[in-house]
Every structure is written in C-alpha cells, then in structure tokens.
TrEMBL record:
It comes from the Eukaryota. The keyword DNA-binding does not apply. This is Inositol oxygenase. One of its GO terms (cellular component) is cytoplasm. Belongs to the myo-inositol oxygenase family. It is found in: Cytoplasm. Pathway: Polyol metabolism; myo-inositol degradation into D-glucuronate; D-glucuronate from myo-inositol: step 1/1. Coiled coil: none annotated. Binds 2 iron ions per subunit. It is an enzyme of class 1 (oxidoreductase). Its main location: cytoplasm. Fe cation binds at H101, H128, D129, H200, D226. Its EC number is 1.13.99.1.
C-alpha cells in the first residue's frame, strides 16, 4: 500500500544518526526496566505478554485481524487521534499523549534526515505505533495483546528478550513442538513466514503490508528515534499537522480498512 520504494541503501548517502541525534536526556536513563516510576505497570504488562502470547494465540489473532474485516474504516490522522485515548502500560519512558510520541519520533527523524527524499521515513515515524488503537474500546484488546515487545513464537524464546524469565510460565516454553531452536519453522524460511507475537506492530504490518526489503538497516536507524525521542516537552500538534497530513495524502488512501 505504501507507494514509494525504500531508497536502495547503496546509493543513498545518509547522515549518521549517532552523531547528529542528541536525546535531551542521557541515553541510559531511557528504557529503564528495573526501577522507573512506572515499574509496576511495566513489569505487569511484560509478565502478561510473555506468559499469554503463544503460537496458537498469535495465529488466531492473525486470522481475526489479518483479513481487515472489522468493518472499521478511518483515515490515518483519525487513527492517530484515536490513539490519544489509550495508555501504553509497557512503556517506562512515556506517559504523554500518544500522538506526541508519534510526532516526536517523526520530528527527530526529520531533523537528521531532512528533505523530501526522506519524507517516507518521516511518515514512518508518524505511523509506527498506530496499531495501538487495538487498545481503544472499539477493539477492546488487553494491554498484553497490543503493547510490549515483539518476538517470534513457534520456536524457542530468545534469552535476549527483556523480562525473559516470564517466558517460563508460557505453555509453549515446555512444549516440544515449539521449544527447539527452529520450532515449527525450516531454517532460512524467511521472516515473512515467521509468526510473531500478536501486537500493535504485527497488526499495523497487516494493514500496510509492506515487504521488508532493505528493512533491517532502516529498522535499526528507526529504533533510535522511536526509543530516545520521548522527552517530556510536548510537540505542537496543530502546527505539525499540515506537514504530516500532506505526507499521509501522498502515501496513503483517504481511508484505510482496520
Ligand atoms: Fe511501538
Ligand atoms: Fe513507539
């Protein structure tokens, strides 16, 4: 659905984000999963997600939402506004309205990658968390089925996951179908054939259905802006709206099926 191709990395000279993107707080004060003021709700969200996200559950949610047949149609901006009704309990860095996080991420990207050539990257920043609308009462999904981290299911849980210990209470942890290195998959089967834990990222991927060419490099760049732009200073939503509306118009149809 996104019309423009990602620029081939070999031909694009990119600014180096680590040199130019300066978070307003020390990087190691972000992503505190040990003793932040939001620690209780964050660890509860991760415990629920890691114990309840099984291979069968993720597949059932893919069936439910993958066909985009909820009957809900709305524009990208409407979805962004709907996001302001929800709170992401898994996030230790942000308790500001979600639309501010979208715009902070997008604006942090735009600072380091200015210009029309990268407008698709600005828009990526703006839309990246729209899948969290699943927390709105119109969808009414629980926190553990929407936010927190994304990880492959159907194979062994990787120890690098935050709160890895919670996986020990997931039924798949002791299921020999799923707890080997490759589990239900063949080696090199391709990421698009791997079932990921169900959540806002997987849901929005289903809606936009972008193939992941050249993707890893850009995902890594993107992560930095997503994770470290959550300073407390609010962005001016009304001032930024025209620019992002113009990008939405360029890359998306007027309404999407959700
Ligand atoms: Fe996210
Ligand atoms: Fe985000």
């Amino acid at each position: 659905m996104i019309k423009s191709e990602l620029p081939p990395s070999a031909t694009v000279v990119v600014a180096h984000p680590t040199l130019q993107f300066e978070p307003t707080k020390e990087v190691d004060t972000f992503r505190n999963y040990e003793d932040s003021h939001l620690q209780d709700s964050v660890s509860r969200a991760y415990r629920n997600s890691h114990t309840k996200q099984t291979y069968e559950y993720a597949k059932s949610k893919l069936d439910q939402y993958g066909s985009l047949s909820t009957g809900i149609n709305m524009s990208v901006w409407e979805a962004a506004e709907l996001l302001n009704t929800i709170v992401d309990e898994s996030d230790p860095d942000s308790d500001i309205p979600q639309i501010n996080h979208l715009l902070q991420t997008a604006e942090a990207i735009r600072k380091v990658y200015p210009g029309e050539e990268y407008d698709w990257f600005h828009l990526t920043g703006f839309i990246h968390d729209l899948g969290k609308i699943l927390l709105n009462p119109r969808f009414n999904e629980p926190q553990w089925a929407v936010v927190g981290d994304t990880f492959p299911v159907g194979c062994r849980f990787d120890e690098s996951n935050i709160f890895y210990e919670y996986f020990k209470d997931n039924p798949d942890y002791n299921n020999s179908l799923y707890n080997t290195e490759c589990g239900v998959y063949e080696k090199h089967c391709g990421l698009e054939n791997v079932v990921m834990s169900w959540g806002h990222d997987e849901y929005f991927y289903q809606i936009t259905n972008e193939q992941d060419q050249e993707m890893l490099e850009w995902v890594k760049k993107f992560n930095m802006f997503d994770l470290y732009s959550k300073d407390a200073e609010p962005v001016n939503v009304e001032k930024l709206k025209p620019y992002y509306q113009s990008l939405i118009k360029k890359y998306f149809p007027d309404t999407l099926r959700w």
